[in-house]
Design goal:
This protein is mainly alpha-helical and 70 residues long. Helices cover 39% and strands 6% of the residues. It has a domain at 34-68. Strand 1 (43-44) and strand 2 form a beta hairpin. The termini are far apart. Bound molecules: zinc ion.
């Protein structure tokens, strides 16, 4: 009997890459914005490197949830 291997998914707070092959242009644009925000808002010893708030800052949370919700 053929057994299909389950893809290995590593859970994490952030994704470094997102597949945009199946998304509409608007969604792709939204994703790229969220991705860019995540790149800017990163943790530096618990403080955001961009807005200097306690990390994860609201912007990073929003961007991460945007990526997760798609
Ligand atoms: Zn921030």
């Amino acid at each position: 009997m053929y057994q299909q291997e389950a893809p290995q998914r590593k859970p994490g707070p952030m994704r470094s890459t997102v597949s945009t092959e199946y998304l509409s242009p608007e969604m792709t644009r939204l994703l790229s914005i969220a991705q860019r925000e995540l790149d800017r808002h990163t943790s530096d010893h618990g403080t955001c490197t961009c807005c200097h708030r306690h990390w994860p800052c609201p912007t990073a949370c929003l961007a991460a949830s945007t990526l997760d919700g798609l």
